[in-house]
Design a protein that fits this description.
6-stranded parallel beta sheet; alpha/beta; Rossmann fold; 13 strands; 2 domains; single chain; 3-stranded antiparallel beta sheet
Length: 414
């Protein structure tokens, strides 16, 4: 899918579910920007507030491309900011802080993801915004939350920090190996973003009913404890040290790579051994318990499965197992994901043309939320730093050229 393309075009007559919802986002990196990008894809108008010098710290990530002004735009920024407008305001400057407070009543959602308490110390915390815009929903995404004290309040947090503290790294670590960090990209960021999205929609619904805004407080560590639920749940049920119980959930080798099989029920095991040519194992006493499956995984099951799969591609293996009712999936490489027909059919990659002469477009994940009565797209490129400052301040606050020049000279805006 390219910028400007649409899917489900027949649904255009319905509009988008968040048409008319306006978001003022004091955001950086990924946890909140992913959330507000999702809201934008669903119709919200998102205005992103960035520091005039440097902007969102995600712009400084690597790899990067060069924007039309010769500035670096990092991958983290590129994949989290489609369809937004950017204004450059230094909200630590008194005049910049006042601009944010003046803008707030025109927006439904004021969102921030700075370290807990940072915005309050700058005079832009929940109490400050609620006084200026009592109907606004105020959203905070931080490592450890804003509304209760935590022993980790002074700790900075990125996604891997919250992931590690959820217990999942230790749960998956083996022997004396170091933990495998960030095994699924920004799980801590995107998981937190999803919970923030749900909180925003719930708070807007509450506002529609009561007329009152409220504070939506999402901690990344809370989000990870929720997503990695088996860590604490299994501990409470007697399993320790990453023990998943008697379950086949392992990787096996095919002719062109690896595939994963999950079998946790007796009828699934019967289908698996039938598929690999050993139906007699259903009645074999060595396999008459689920623990027996694991006890003989490496000496019997794995050699048999891999011998059966040795002359088959991993997709063929999984297709054959699926036909028998056994859940299996190929371990795709990055290039295989990029060229996967399912990914293409579901518009799950958006091509963003580069502005620095590189032919290969930047690929950004599409919107995984498919709605039958909502047109998908069109997507718009990320904003350049401060690109919409004058447009927004003129349109929202009626500032004229003279006042904009004064604010710019004072360093309050870009």
């Amino acid at each position: 899918m390219q910028l400007g393309d649409v899917a489900n075009e027949g649904a255009a007559r319905y509009g988008k579910p968040l048409d008319g919802v306006r978001v003022l986002a004091l955001e950086q990196m990924q946890a909140l920007p992913w959330c507000t990008q999702l809201l934008s894809r669903l119709g919200a108008d998102v205005v992103k507030v960035e520091h005039p010098r440097g902007g969102d710290s995600g712009r400084g990530s690597q790899p990067a491309m060069i924007d039309p002004e010769g500035r670096s735009v990092g991958a983290t920024f590129l994949r989290n900011n489609l369809g937004k407008r950017s204004i450059g305001i230094d909200f630590k400057h008194p005049a910049g802080r006042q601009l944010v407070l003046d803008l707030a009543p025109g927006f439904d959602v004021i969102a921030e993801n700075f370290k807990a308490g940072a915005l309050a110390r700058s005079g832009l915390g929940y109490a400050d915004i609620a006084a200026a815009a009592p109907r606004a929903v105020y959203v905070s995404v931080s490592g450890f939350g804003n509304t209760t004290s935590s022993p980790y309040d002074r700790w900075p947090a990125y996604a891997p920090i919250a992931e590690a503290m959820s217990g999942i790294y230790e749960f998956k670590r083996t022997g004396d190996d170091p933990p495998f960090v960030a095994p699924v990209g920004g799980l801590g960021d995107i998981g937190s973003a999803l919970f923030a999205s749900v909180g925003i929609l719930a708070a807007l619904r509450h506002r529609d009913t009561t007329g009152e805004g409220q504070h939506v407080d999402v901690a990344m560590l809370d989000s990870m404890v929720a997503i990695t639920d088996l860590v604490t749940n299994f501990w409470s049920m007697g399993l320790r040290d990453g023990d998943l119980g008697p379950l086949i959930m392992h990787g096996f080798r095919a002719a062109d790579g690896w595939f994963i099989v999950q079998v946790g029920r007796e009828h699934q095991f019967a289908k698996l051994v039938e598929a690999i040519g050993h139906p007699e194992w259903v009645d074999d006493p060595r396999f008459n318990t689920r623990q027996g499956w694991l006890d003989h995984l490496d000496d019997l099951l794995r050699p048999a499965i891999e011998a059966w799969a040795a002359d088959k591609r991993k997709v063929e293996v999984c297709d054959a197992l699926a036909a028998m009712g056994v859940a299996a999936g190929p371990c795709f490489s990055d290039e295989e994901v990029v060229h996967d027909p399912h990914v293409a059919a579901r518009n799950m990659l958006v091509e963003v043309p580069r502005t620095d002469g590189v032919d290969q477009p930047v690929l950004v994940p599409g919107n995984p939320v498919k709605l039958s009565k909502v047109q998908e797209g069109p997507e718009a490129r990320v904003p350049w730093l401060g690109e919409h400052t004058d447009e927004v301040l003129r349109g929202e606050l009626g500032l004229d050229d003279e006042r904009l020049a004064e604010l710019r000279a004072a360093g309050a805006i870009s």
